[in-house]
Amino acid sequence: MKCVADLRSLQTALIFAFIALVLTACGALPGNSDLEDAVVLTDQSVDKSQMLSMINSYRKQNGLPALKHDPELDAVSQKMARHIAERDSMDTWAHSAFGLSQRLDKAGYTNYAGAENLGAGYADLPAAFRGWQGSSGHNKNLLNPYVTRVGIARTNRNNGKWRNFWVMTLSRPYADGRPVVQ
Question: Which of 92, 113, 128, 174 gives 119 a disulfide partner, CB atoms 3.0 to 4.6 angstroms apart?
Protein backbone atom coordinates (compact mmCIF):
# COMPACT_ATOMS: atom_id res chain seq x y z
CA MET A 1 0.00 0.00 0.00
CA LYS A 2 2.81 2.39 0.80
CA CYS A 3 4.19 1.91 -2.71
CA VAL A 4 0.82 2.90 -4.26
CA ALA A 5 0.55 5.95 -1.99
CA ASP A 6 4.10 7.00 -2.89
CA LEU A 7 3.29 6.55 -6.59
CA ARG A 8 0.13 8.69 -6.23
CA SER A 9 2.13 11.39 -4.39
CA LEU A 10 4.74 11.33 -7.13
CA GLN A 11 2.05 11.57 -9.83
CA THR A 12 0.39 14.49 -8.03
CA ALA A 13 3.72 16.28 -7.62
CA LEU A 14 4.54 15.76 -11.30
CA ILE A 15 1.13 17.05 -12.36
CA PHE A 16 1.53 20.19 -10.21
CA ALA A 17 5.07 20.68 -11.51
CA PHE A 18 3.84 20.35 -15.09
CA ILE A 19 0.99 22.82 -14.48
CA ALA A 20 3.42 25.31 -12.90
CA LEU A 21 5.77 24.91 -15.86
CA VAL A 22 2.96 25.53 -18.35
CA LEU A 23 1.67 28.55 -16.42
CA THR A 24 5.17 29.99 -16.14
CA ALA A 25 5.70 29.58 -19.88
CA CYS A 26 2.38 31.32 -20.54
CA GLY A 27 3.20 34.19 -18.19
CA ALA A 28 0.29 33.43 -15.85
CA LEU A 29 2.34 33.31 -12.66
CA PRO A 30 3.07 36.55 -10.79
CA GLY A 31 6.44 38.08 -11.50
CA ASN A 32 6.69 36.69 -15.02
CA SER A 33 7.31 39.62 -17.34
CA ASP A 34 7.66 37.74 -20.63
CA LEU A 35 4.34 39.08 -21.86
CA GLU A 36 4.74 42.56 -20.38
CA ASP A 37 6.27 45.29 -22.53
CA ALA A 38 9.62 46.48 -21.32
CA VAL A 39 9.63 50.19 -20.52
CA VAL A 40 11.25 52.15 -23.34
CA LEU A 41 12.00 55.84 -22.85
CA THR A 42 12.65 58.06 -25.85
CA ASP A 43 13.89 61.63 -25.54
CA GLN A 44 11.99 63.79 -28.02
CA SER A 45 13.20 66.96 -29.63
CA VAL A 46 11.32 70.11 -28.73
CA ASP A 47 11.14 73.07 -31.11
CA LYS A 48 13.07 75.65 -29.08
CA SER A 49 12.04 78.57 -31.28
CA GLN A 50 8.35 77.64 -30.82
CA MET A 51 8.88 77.38 -27.06
CA LEU A 52 10.64 80.77 -26.91
CA SER A 53 7.97 82.37 -29.06
CA MET A 54 5.20 81.05 -26.83
CA ILE A 55 6.74 81.96 -23.49
CA ASN A 56 8.14 85.32 -24.56
CA SER A 57 4.87 86.38 -26.19
CA TYR A 58 3.06 85.42 -22.99
CA ARG A 59 5.56 87.24 -20.80
CA LYS A 60 5.38 90.34 -23.03
CA GLN A 61 1.56 90.38 -22.67
CA ASN A 62 2.17 90.48 -18.93
CA GLY A 63 4.79 93.25 -19.02
CA LEU A 64 7.79 90.97 -18.44
CA PRO A 65 11.08 90.75 -20.35
CA ALA A 66 11.86 87.96 -22.77
CA LEU A 67 13.81 84.87 -21.70
CA LYS A 68 16.84 83.43 -23.49
CA HIS A 69 17.12 79.78 -24.37
CA ASP A 70 19.79 77.97 -22.34
CA PRO A 71 21.02 74.55 -23.54
CA GLU A 72 22.32 73.79 -20.04
CA LEU A 73 18.77 74.09 -18.76
CA ASP A 74 17.63 71.79 -21.58
CA ALA A 75 20.01 69.15 -20.18
CA VAL A 76 18.72 69.63 -16.62
CA SER A 77 15.16 69.42 -17.94
CA GLN A 78 15.92 66.27 -19.93
CA LYS A 79 17.29 64.45 -16.89
CA MET A 80 14.15 65.32 -14.94
CA ALA A 81 11.87 64.33 -17.83
CA ARG A 82 13.55 60.90 -17.90
CA HIS A 83 13.30 60.68 -14.10
CA ILE A 84 9.54 61.17 -14.07
CA ALA A 85 9.00 59.05 -17.20
CA GLU A 86 10.82 56.13 -15.58
CA ARG A 87 8.36 56.35 -12.67
CA ASP A 88 5.33 57.17 -14.84
CA SER A 89 4.65 59.81 -12.21
CA MET A 90 5.51 63.39 -11.35
CA ASP A 91 5.31 62.61 -7.63
CA THR A 92 8.99 62.63 -6.69
CA TRP A 93 11.22 64.38 -4.14
CA ALA A 94 13.20 65.75 -7.08
CA HIS A 95 10.24 68.00 -7.93
CA SER A 96 10.66 70.47 -5.11
CA ALA A 97 12.58 73.69 -4.54
CA PHE A 98 15.29 71.68 -2.80
CA GLY A 99 15.30 69.04 -5.57
CA LEU A 100 15.63 71.64 -8.34
CA SER A 101 18.39 73.48 -6.49
CA GLN A 102 20.25 70.22 -5.94
CA ARG A 103 19.92 69.19 -9.59
CA LEU A 104 21.10 72.60 -10.83
CA ASP A 105 24.08 72.44 -8.44
CA LYS A 106 24.93 68.93 -9.63
CA ALA A 107 24.89 70.21 -13.22
CA GLY A 108 27.31 73.00 -12.24
CA TYR A 109 24.66 75.63 -12.90
CA THR A 110 24.99 78.32 -10.25
CA ASN A 111 21.77 80.29 -10.10
CA TYR A 112 20.12 83.17 -8.33
CA ALA A 113 16.51 82.13 -9.01
CA GLY A 114 14.97 78.96 -10.36
CA ALA A 115 11.60 77.44 -11.12
CA GLU A 116 10.35 74.32 -12.84
CA ASN A 117 7.19 73.18 -14.58
CA LEU A 118 6.40 69.50 -15.08
CA GLY A 119 3.66 68.13 -17.26
CA ALA A 120 2.48 64.67 -18.22
CA GLY A 121 0.13 63.38 -20.86
CA TYR A 122 0.25 66.43 -23.15
CA ALA A 123 0.59 65.40 -26.81
CA ASP A 124 2.43 68.52 -27.94
CA LEU A 125 4.11 71.71 -26.74
CA PRO A 126 1.07 74.01 -27.17
CA ALA A 127 -1.02 71.63 -25.02
CA ALA A 128 1.66 71.49 -22.31
CA PHE A 129 1.99 75.28 -22.36
CA ARG A 130 -1.79 75.76 -22.05
CA GLY A 131 -1.80 73.31 -19.16
CA TRP A 132 0.88 75.32 -17.39
CA GLN A 133 -0.97 78.57 -18.02
CA GLY A 134 -4.11 77.05 -16.52
CA SER A 135 -2.39 76.05 -13.28
CA SER A 136 -1.76 78.88 -10.81
CA GLY A 137 1.60 77.53 -9.57
CA HIS A 138 2.89 76.72 -13.05
CA ASN A 139 1.64 80.03 -14.42
CA LYS A 140 3.48 81.84 -11.62
CA ASN A 141 6.68 80.15 -12.85
CA LEU A 142 6.03 81.19 -16.46
CA LEU A 143 5.63 84.78 -15.25
CA ASN A 144 8.47 84.71 -12.71
CA PRO A 145 10.08 88.19 -12.93
CA TYR A 146 13.40 86.94 -11.51
CA VAL A 147 14.29 84.38 -14.20
CA THR A 148 16.12 85.21 -17.42
CA ARG A 149 16.80 81.80 -19.02
CA VAL A 150 14.72 78.78 -20.00
CA GLY A 151 15.24 75.20 -21.09
CA ILE A 152 12.76 72.50 -22.01
CA ALA A 153 12.69 68.77 -22.65
CA ARG A 154 10.30 65.95 -23.42
CA THR A 155 10.57 62.20 -22.88
CA ASN A 156 8.08 59.67 -24.16
CA ARG A 157 7.31 56.34 -22.52
CA ASN A 158 6.02 53.41 -24.59
CA ASN A 159 3.54 52.25 -21.94
CA GLY A 160 1.98 53.37 -18.69
CA LYS A 161 -0.50 56.03 -17.70
CA TRP A 162 0.97 59.25 -19.14
CA ARG A 163 3.29 58.43 -22.09
CA ASN A 164 4.48 62.06 -22.61
CA PHE A 165 6.53 63.89 -19.99
CA TRP A 166 7.49 67.57 -20.21
CA VAL A 167 9.86 69.64 -18.09
CA MET A 168 10.57 73.36 -18.38
CA THR A 169 13.34 74.76 -16.21
CA LEU A 170 13.60 78.51 -15.68
CA SER A 171 16.53 80.22 -14.00
CA ARG A 172 18.68 83.28 -13.57
CA PRO A 173 22.33 82.24 -13.54
CA TYR A 174 25.10 83.75 -11.48
CA ALA A 175 28.24 85.07 -13.15
CA ASP A 176 31.19 86.61 -11.32
CA GLY A 177 29.32 86.39 -8.02
CA ARG A 178 26.17 88.22 -9.09
CA PRO A 179 22.94 87.40 -10.94
CA VAL A 180 23.05 87.71 -14.73
CA VAL A 181 20.58 90.31 -15.99
CA GLN A 182 20.20 88.81 -19.46
Answer: 128
